[in-house]
Amino acid sequence: MIEATTLSAYVKEPLVFTQENYFSQDELFEQVTQKAADLDWVRDDFLERIKKRETTFPTGIQLVHYGAAIPHTDAECVHEEFVAIVTLQDPVIFQSMEDNDQEVKAQIVFVLGLNQPHAQLEMLQSLMGLLQNESLLAELLLATTPSELIEIIKQNNL
């Protein structure tokens, strides 16, 4: 039996950003990529490719009370697997994955840095489950430190 991919296995404190303010997707992607590059977790083309993929295949998800996004790119761009989590004080605009003409004001963004294609699908399924739990999302959005956010994920066996 294949073990389910758990979020807590991939969330690492250097790539958890809480209560941030970014003016654009690009600024958010640049911050996450810079930190991942400093750790040597991604290739040099990670930033360019995640931006391009988001333009071609938007990942914004409008929930009942919140907006979220799950940007990701090709597995070969990732040396060390991670899921970066960014919670935002002011939402960043993403295009909806269901309708490219619709904007989603994302308050939480999960940037997937996975290098195993099957893990990407499992992680997307896991995150969709999390996104359907609005009370848990609210808890994550209230976290003020990376360690607090990670603790919420661990307590909820994500």
TrEMBL record:
InterPro entries xrefs: PTrfase/Anion_transptr (IPR016152), PTS_EIIA_type-2_dom (IPR002178), PTS_SugarTrans_NitroReg (IPR051541)
Native source species: Enterococcus hermanniensis
Organism lineage string: Bacteria, Bacillati, Bacillota, Bacilli, Lactobacillales
Domain PTS EIIA type-2: 9-156
Protein name (database record): PTS EIIA type-2 domain-containing protein
UniProt superkingdom: Bacteria
Pfam families: PTS_EIIA_2
